[in-house]
Records
---
Amino acid sequence: MSEVVNIKKLNKAYPGPVQAVRNVDLQIKQGEVHALLGPNGAGKTTTIKSILGFVNYSGNISVLNGDIDSRRDRIAFVPEEKSFYEFLTPKGAVRLCESILPSFDKNLALDYVKRFSLPMNKKIREFSHGMKTSLYLALTFSQGVDLYIFDEPTWGLDPIRRDDVLNIIRNTIIEGSTVLYTSHIISEVERIADRVSIMMDGHVVFTGYLDDIKERFRVFYLPVDFTDYSADQTEAVLKDREKLTILTRNVDFIDKLEDDPQVEITVPDLELFFQLFLRGRQYV
Amino acid sequence: MRTRWLIFIFLFCVVLTIFLAMRPFAGEMMAQFEMSAEQLEKMPEFFREMLGETSQMQRLKDDDQYYLMSQWYAKNFGQFLPFFALIMAFPVFSREVEKKTIYFLLAKMKRSRVFELKAFPGLLTTLVTVAFFSLVAPFLMILLGYDVRYTGEVFLILFQQLIGAAFFYALFLFFSVCFNDQIKPVIIGIIISIGLPFFSLVNGNENWPGLSWLNPYPYIQGSRLIQKGEFDVIYTLALALTGVLLLALGYVVFKKKEF
């Protein structure tokens, strides 16, 4: 699979002591839904802003095998703040998009507006947060592009609308398109993503397929005084008063402990994997 | 932009109506002034200077063309132009950034295209509006039966107004690019618009040119053209060039700016 986004040694520092992104290498492959996960301040939005050329950075980023400025007509972006021109109605917004976006499908956009139950002739300024987000997504889904970038696309949506949006992303858009997606809601990432990257303190600390996580990783719950492990055998270690939790993909370690009846072992879902990765890296 | 533009169109219409309605009373007002001309001699010199050339003021009574030049171009309309440019320019970029709608544009278009799309329609609207209200005043005066013509001076003043409005638009657009909210560019714009006339108080001497040249209001109002019939080529070129440089600087800042 060819790479739709290829990031090499991305660094970005804002004024002040904190470096937002450090030496990030990230590849988004053709036709995948790639989720970028991480806590607040991990560098997800800065990475997306770098891809889109919104901020100055050092390193190399290619989008659709070229410079971002020559590919803008082939990408669509939903930012964290889904603000559109508030003096417009959805009808006016569709008309505006049709006039400035070459591949915009007006009829599809009007269908989405209808599907999301948005009032066609009401000013956007009178919309609720969820309605504004729905409209922004309707305008984005109708752009017919090769790469969709979503920054927290479902934030503020009710569960039914969120379900609709995830279905559209999973079933409609990705036909031939690629999606880069950030969210704090792990369950929705697990539902639509093919591959995930976890960012922490400006670094990408993990990239892999969701299926691989289930196939290769194991979580062991061990007695607190368990010491028979080394740092290179573990991905994350979490210790509390009652137990020691180890996330590992080390085959020898897994083989050694998985038949021990005293040891509790589970296949991690994304939520557990993510939590352990974030909380347990510091003890490795 | 449409709402702001419409507000100013309404304002210009109101001022234009007052300007036309006041014409019959200008003679009466000057007659009163004539009666007190002798008293002028007794007034302090600084006050006489402030009043300016009284013979020019007497022309208001009989000369319709002079009324147009001095009361429309040099006063009512001319004084509004920097504020009109400010209203048109200050939100062009700052509002997009403040409201976060800039991401929609930047994601889909090159920055050069965004700059074109945002900066030039506003400039064009400003210039067309200025040209319209500059030329419609003599037209309406002719319709009302006054002895007014489209002389070369009228068109030269129009040219100066266009250069001046473009300069102010470029200046305020630059602030719009620099700031991420709408408050700062509008406050700086108001301070500049109100503050520039104070430079006229700093007159020069043989060794020093003073600072009055930093005030472009007399140029926009066509003061020199009206009083001496002179068109200031150097000031025109300097103001036009400064406007172009400010526009270019705004573009460079926009190209480099982080969002």
Note: Chain A touches chain B at residues 49, 52-56, 69, 72-73, 75-77, 79, 81, 83-87, 100-101, 149 (CB under 8 Å).
---
Amino acid sequence: MRCPPFLAALGALLAVGCGGDAGEPPPTTSSQACSGPGYGEENGSQRVDVLRAMLVDQDGEPLADELVQVCGLNVCVNDMTEADGEVVVEARADIVLPAFKFGEGRVSARFAWLLPDEREIDLGVVPSVRLPPLDEAVPLTPGSRARSGALSLELSADATVKIDKLTFREPEEQGLRAVRVPLDSAPPVVAEGPELEIVIAATPVDTRFCPPALLTIDNELDWSPGTDVEVWLHGVDISQEWAPYGGWAKVSDAHVSDDGERIETTEPGLPVLGVLGFRRAP
Amino acid sequence: MGVPRLAALCALASACGTNKPELPPDLDRPEHCVALGYPDGPYGTEPGAVVRNACFSGWRAPHRVARTPETLEPIALSDYHDPEAAAVHLLVLNTAALWCAACRIEHESLPEHLEPLASRGLVFLSAVFQDERHEPAEFDDLALWVETFDTRFPIVLDPGYSFGLYASAETAPLNLVVDPQTMTILAKFVGDQPAVMWPFIEAELAKRSAP
């Protein structure tokens, strides 16, 4: 059963089965392109007492003073990393679909890594992804193109850009910043995804585009012109509108341009910003 | 002195309502505010118990005022104590925090629930208690929340998390459904539970409007 996003969110929160299978998106028409299909499904709770982790960036450097959370659909327990990147979260709660949520999308990218059903969890060193500095942020303005790193977004003149201003409060935080995620040192949640070949972390996380944005990335892997590509989104939002929480869902089709220079979305385009995965269509 | 703290002291100085008790200077915790006629304790935190009075600063109708620190008003739970059920038939006390995704989901859907129920005597009061990094909420946080959700019901700052008596911050949102005649807690919903809470509220309102 497919649900409107709001009902999907309720379903998720109330553990009511309501949504598509995780990772297998229902077909989207252009009229539906501004609201996600919803991925809520029934989940039981599990006990999480203590979680330990050490957060580092893609160069192995500690990520200090980062907000991390043991966060599920019903409970969210927070802590901050120490100077050496270490954190111990004393959750001691029964949590529905608990994930280790790290990165706010300010300093580092936001991920949600679903936790094993264990009361005490030691994740060891958790690689994350440091984002470009704020002074490299590019405004997201309707009717213009914004480029950061290998990723660019083209917004139609009538586009609505809905930024999470409760999280990204300063103007510079509301600009586009994107960075390639090295697969050999990516967070485990990337490897657990759908065999992605390119991953790019972009922020401000959860920015919504309506109509969806034309997304373009450099064809760094030299895929052949015309190659069909899938664009996937990592789900960090408990409303699970566009992707299952802690998982991945395909959000758009794309292809390699005729000149082989770029990979660009076709239909429906990019509806929401976050950690994006790309793979050649099977 | 920050604006929120100043506003809180102003709220205390104005005695949280129409009465003006002399408060000891060290009573700066909101739950210590006093209102004549408010139900006596023993107070409690679970259904069947009387909710303790608490005083805040906020806006009764945030969409009708310029949202500046100067327009913050003292608002107390006792303001909604209605022994005759003349105006308030049911009171819902709600918590919200900027970091709380479930709170955001809840507040996005509130208008569709509240608009048809306001005329039936439902008063919904929300308290914003923490910012996006789990720090105590300040004036800017309250203003941003109101702007984001176009809040049109009473909303207050609760930087000391007075409602922590009833549920831990991690389980936000909290919703206490309260009988305004006795200020007794009728139900307590921890976490966003719309499919359970709104039918309960509808049923309570129906009971209260029955001849």
Note: Residues 5-13 of chain A form the longest helix (9 residues).
